[in-house]
Amino acid sequence: MCSTLRGCVPCRTCSVRDFASPLLVGCRRLSTFCNMRIRIPNLWNITGRRPSDVNSTPDVDGTPDVDGTLDVDGTPGVDGTPGVNGTPGVTDGLQAPSEEQPNSVPLTFVENLEKFRVYEASKLLIEREESLFGEMSETETSEDHQEEVANLHADYTKLLERVQYILKGSMSVGLRDVSVENLSSAVKAVCQEEERYQAWKEKNRTPPTWRRRSWKEIHDSLLLDLTTERLVVLPTTPPDMKESLQKEVNHMGKQLKEDLFWVVDVVKLYYPPHMDICNSYARMYHQVLSNKVKGISDIILVDEDVRFLLLWVNDFYPGMLQKPELTAEIDTEALGKLLSQKDLEPLEEQYLSKQQSELMTYISRVLEEEEQRWKDEEEPQKEDGYYVSPVAYDIIQLINGMVTSTETVVGDRHKAQSITCELSSLMERFKVFHSSIIRKNKANSSAYIKANLGCIEQFRDVLENNGHLFTEDERGKCLGIVAEMKQSAHAYLLSPVHDSLKSHYRKLGTKDWLKKSVFEKLLENIETKMQDLQGLTTPCHQELIGQFHREVAVKYLSRLLKGEVKLKNQEQQEEAYTVVKDNAETLHKLFSTMGSREEWLKDVLTKIAEVLKLQDLPAIQIHVATLGSCFPDISVKHVSALLKLKTNVSKADRKTVKETLSDILNEPHTDNAPAFFSQVQVK
């Protein structure tokens, strides 16, 4: 009602037929004399409706009203309520069919909303908002236009609902529920409304109700709800708890993978870069999945479920995120672990304890089976002519398999190594069994010791070359144990051989020794006794023969330095030089043929022989100094005993030579020099 004319003007309360009344015509004629604030052409901008949309009653042509009531022909209203003929509303997800309006006639807010043109609908609401709040004071707006504000608030609610519907439908594969144009329009609307929100924040006045929350926050909250909903598993009735848990986790992982690929392939195309939508979705899915998995981990789980959950968190999930298509768009490193370390610790503790217990049980079982075979006096198996034992192979396979799988499950090598923390105690048990075989010295003891040497060689190899399977402390303990076992095995196998050669050793360094026949008989018996050392794997046989080679050389030099033979002149000393040099060469040839790799032993005996030949004191000093540099374990006693063989060397000269050696031995030396003279005992 116009207060000046006391008559009606076109406003929201008039129906179409009111505009044809004579009074309205009269009002139009007199409008130039009225001081009215609302002009007819601007009516649509204020209300967002056509005059024909204002009336709540059905229109003649059946177009939908704002409140969603039925038109005469039953077409749906905005809220999606069915028409008279049962036609579904627009909220069924399909774009409401309607004829395009002529370009000269802009679509109303309602029409844009029905066509899912939410960006255009948003622009109309912003124009209405600007008209209401732009020029008027805060007091005028609140007092004089309460109805307009309420209507605008209601329309913003409808706009938000439509945007939410579109965003939710955008995660359907193929955009079945909305079109790509709808999604693009919704994203632009969110950005547009966010700009309007930021503009209101800069104003020094109270914002309207719909401007008190960021549309970006609303958008993100909606996506978080959406991701949560998409990871929800429908209730099932599986036959057991294990199937239920694993099915739930696998379902969530599959859904997350499909959705993230959909985001980076399709959804990303309709978002501006500054919204970083790929990382936003990834963070939300990660958060939702993390909460779900944490909830599962908080309940009491059986060992198999714990393993599955740890494997999923530490291997399957990170592996899925490392797909090139995802890493190109998503900062997967920034997502972090699916579970915090605090949440992982109880699961890891339960799993590692189980793994350690199982490993120790399996190793104990292997040792028990070997001990039982020994008690039953079974002969070790032979392969390619040498004795073998399954102990080392079985234990190494167990350790390698379980440590490797544990590292995959817990995602940490150091933690995986911890399951071998009691390995040294089991190796000690193996050592005790090994010593028992030696001590009892049964008919099959030699065969078992040879088989054990093969095991020792395998253990040492894996301990030295596969250190990642063990903690450093445990690795050092086990290496010490296998070294002791090898030493005792060599002593057990070589002691009978040395006992049979004692009579030949006694003739070394005597007058008879200068005759070739003495050393030749020693070599013949050595070659014969070597047949008793067969039945070892090639590496073990080479080590044993090398040890035998060293021990024979040690006994040879020990007998020589006893001083039973006296070399009174140069002729005898040169003869002794020739004998020692020839003995060194023939001994080296024999042992090399049998598999020894201790070539340096020939050099030791040759250098000893050269000292016997030299006559000049300076030459002797230089040569002894060379011996001290090459073999720092040589002592003054060794040199003194050697020089005493040469009776023409005075006591003063011997003292001079010993002082020269002492000076050399006081200098720093490398630790890689082989130990030899320390095993040669002299008085």
TrEMBL record:
One of its GO terms (cellular component) is exocyst. Belongs to the SEC6 family. InterPro entries: EXOC3/Sec6, EXOC3/Sec6_C. GO terms for biological process: exocyst localization; exocytosis. It comes from Betta splendens. Residues 71-93 have a biased composition (Low complexity). PANTHER family: EXOCYST COMPLEX COMPONENT SEC6-RELATED, TUMOR NECROSIS FACTOR ALPHA-INDUCED PROTEIN 2. Residues 49-103 are annotated as: Disordered. GO terms for molecular function: SNARE binding. This is Tumor necrosis factor alpha-induced protein 2-like isoform X2. Gene3D superfamilies: Exocyst complex component Sec6, C-terminal domain.
